[in-house]
Amino acid sequence: MTTSTQNLTEQVVASFANAENPRLRQVMQSLVRHLHAFALDVELSMAEWEMAIGFLTKTGHMCDDKRQEFILLSDTLGFSMLVDSINHRSIEGATETTVLGPFYVPPLKVSPSESDISGDAAGTPLHVEARVTAPDGQPLAGAWVDVWHSDDDGYYDVQKPGQVENLRARFISDADGRFSFWSIVPVPYPIPTDGPVGKMLEAVGRHPYRPAHVHFMIGKDGYDTLVTHLFIEDDPYLQSDAVFGVKQQLVVHLTDEAGGTTSSGEVRGAHRKITHSFGLRPIA
Ligand code: BEZ
Ligand code: FE
Known about the structure:
By secondary structure, this protein is α+β, with helices and mostly antiparallel strands. The chain has six helices and 14 strands. Helices cover 26% and strands 23% of the residues.
């Protein structure tokens, strides 16, 4: 590093010295140091700088109230999971967190336990029986539980024009902390690749797939809202999730079951089943 480059970095760092907000000062000064160190490390060319500006501009143009390409970029760089882990340290008895993803929509109504949320979607029938507890295992009654997942073709309802609410629902845990529902077993699917992030993955030879999973968001007064997934065991993408969201604790075993009945009295034959317990962490 030349003396003048060193001076430049220190000059820019010093320009934030009078920021009234000490946290803003800390963040901006650290950002400048790391950004300058990065450019020096790779000896960034002018052409590469222009390409990066063009990439970020296209990323911004791809964003609107339905599409957030910057979050997708953060996800594919592992940045979302890094920030998630800084803010949700593991604690005994609490379920680990993972990315929210772009397909969450608050469900329109509360569904009774044992509802079938799959509508007319084709796929292998799935039964989920779960509990919500405190870290010490005590059941938590009255927690809201939002569930959403993709269909057998790898699409969420919101990705299909004109599609009605499907493969998503809200449940409320009962006195024993339990909730349950019927659906279909999700399949692996690609994250959206029609924007700059998709081009970046292609340019570096990375695939866009996420391993099959069901999303859960679980909340109750006095507890941190849990944002997590359950991943289906033996999925070929568990080791190479495009957004780095897999944690071993969240990979579940499915059992093969013979039959059951939905809340509306429909009989289900052979199906796969997930039995799981979610631990919420008390607000510190
Ligand atoms: C998802 O699982 O829905 C998702 C997460 C991050 C990026 C794209 C999709
Ligand atoms: Fe997903």
